[in-house]
Fold P-loop containing nucleoside triphosphate hydrolase.
Amino acid sequence: MGSDFQSYKVLVLGDSGVGKTSIVETFCGNKYKTFDSTINSDLKCKIINLNGASIKLEIWDTAGQERYKSLTPSFYRDAMGVLLIYDVTRIKTFEHIKGWLQDIKEYTSPHVSIVLVGNKCESSDRQVSLDTGNKLADMIRLPLLEVSSKNNINVETAFMTLARGIEEVIKENVGFKLYKTLTYKCKPSSLGFRIILSEKYRKMLLQSMKYLVIPLHM
Ligand SMILES: Nc1nc2c(ncn2[C@@H]2O[C@H](COP(=O)(O)OP(=O)(O)OP(=O)(O)O)[C@@H](O)[C@H]2O)c(=O)[nH]1
Ligand SMILES: [Mg+2]
């Protein structure tokens, strides 16, 4: 597996038992079964294809139980995306979403992308309707997806929605930063100019092309 993929660090957060591990395992192609409660955090990686580019998702499945929570601020800080999960069969987990959002706001970058996820949507034991979920999602301006890791409903869509959100943020930020660098460092002439970038930045530049066409032709 090449190591030059761009990687997106993603956290999976939510109360204990909402199905974080089950969702991650289902996304990674593993069979649905019962998992032990997560201690601290587990890392899983999956390569996805986003608009023709291979991206490595570094997925951190975290512990929902208070006594296992030991994530450091720096762990949160370099996260690029968060899947924030509640369980549609337990209203308490839904009521705790605002508390999780406060933690996310406090510890992560303001540019972090978040997707709200209501798990166990196949269950007939619901305590949180889709309508109630949508009302909260509208209020906090986040995309909401109801999923079922048990029946593999919408699990991939949730991760892809998050990855696209991260990609958008990167485009905006890299485009802006490179715009500033290029307009400061380069004086275009009739001969044009040549910019040498590392492979990492070349990829980011290509992904941000729509933002960079303007400065390159000024
Ligand atoms: N009905 C139903 N049950 C599910 C689903 N996903 C997970 N579960 C069950 O929910 C329970 C908790 O799942 P986990 O994936 O371990 O939950 P977690 O969020 O990782 O929990 P912690 O590691 O303690 O934070 C298990 O009994 C799962 O079998 C689902 O989509 N539908
Ligand atoms: Mg777990």
Notes: The chain has one domain: 6-178.
